Automatic annotation (TrEMBL):
<dbReference type="GO" id="GO:0016740">
    <property type="term" value="F:transferase activity"/>
</dbReference>
<dbReference type="GO" id="GO:0009073">
    <property type="term" value="P:aromatic amino acid family biosynthetic process"/>
</dbReference>
<dbReference type="InterPro" id="IPR052899">
    <property type="entry name" value="Class-I_DAHP_synthase"/>
</dbReference>
<dbReference type="InterPro" id="IPR013785">
    <property type="entry name" value="Aldolase_TIM"/>
</dbReference>
<dbReference type="InterPro" id="IPR006218">
    <property type="entry name" value="DAHP1/KDSA"/>
</dbReference>
<dbReference type="Pfam" id="PF00793">
    <property type="entry name" value="DAHP_synth_1"/>
</dbReference>
<dbReference type="InterPro" id="IPR006268">
    <property type="entry name" value="DAHP_syn_2"/>
</dbReference>
<keyword id="KW-0808">Transferase</keyword>
<feature type="domain" description="DAHP synthetase I/KDSA">
    <location>
        <begin position="18"/>
        <end position="266"/>
    </location>
</feature>
<dbReference type="GO" id="GO:0016832">
    <property type="term" value="F:aldehyde-lyase activity"/>
</dbReference>
<protein>
    <submittedName>
        <fullName>3-deoxy-D-arabinoheptulosonate-7-phosphate synthase</fullName>
    </submittedName>
</protein>
Amino acid sequence: MELKIINKKHKEDKKKIKIKNVEVGGDALVVFAGPCAVENRQQIMETAEAVKTFGGQILRGGAFKPRTSPYSFQGLGEEGLKLLKEAGEKYDMPIVSEVMDTREVEMVCQYVDIIQIGSRNMQNFSLLREIGKIKKPIMLKRGMAASIEEWLMAAEYIASEGNEEIILCERGIRTFETYTRNTLDLSVVPLVRQLSSLPIIVDPSHGTGIKELIAPMSLASIAAGAHGIMVEIHPKPQHALSDGKQSLHFEEFNHLMKSVRRLHEYLKKQLVMNNE
C-alpha cells in the first residue's frame, strides 16, 4: 500500500486537527452528536442544546440525505445547513454535514466547519479531488464494502490535492450478517493508527443500526483507541424522519456520555501508570 502523504512515518507521528475550540486526534475524547437529518428549527435547536449540555463537542446533522429509496426523506438541503449553522453558533459548537456532489461543495463550505464524505461517496474520486483543494477539515467515512487499503487510498486522494486535515470514520461494513445494519469493524482502529497518522473516530449508530448496541460499541471503540465517537440523537426518535431506530433520546445520550467519560479517564490513568 503506497501511502505517500498520510502514512505514519514515525511512532509519534500523529495528526491533530483543530476545529475552532476542539482538537481531534489529541488526548481528549471528542464526541460528535446530533440528528441523522435536520428536520426543522425546533428539532435542531433542542438537539444542539442537549449535545452541549451533556458534553458533546461537535454538532452533526444531515442536510443532503443519500437514501436507499428515492421516496424517503432527502433532507432540507441548503435550508437545513442554515439551521445547523444557526444551532452551532448559538451553542458554540463546530458543525459537520455531508456533501454529495462537486457542484455543492462551494455552497456547503459557506456553512459547515467539517465536510463529511459519506460511505456511498468514499470512492467518488472527482468529489475527493474537489474537497482536497479546499481548506476545511474533512471527515471521510469508510465505504460500506471498502477494504482498509481502499479507505486509506481514498484519504490519500484528498491529501494529494493539498488538504491533509482528514478525520477517518469507521461506520461499519456490509457482511453476510443481517441482524445488525452493518458489521462494526473495530479492528480497523488500531490498524489505522499503526498505518496512518490520521485520527480515527467510530460511528456505532450506523455501525449497528440498533440503539441498544450504541453504548457497548462506543465503549469498545474507545478501548480500541478511537479518538472519538459519532452518535445520532433525536428529541423524539420514534418520530424521526431518518434513522429513528438507531437514534438515542437525550437522557440515553446523557448516560452514554457519563460512561464514555469514565472509561476514557480510566484508560488515561492506566497509560500514565504504565509509562511510569
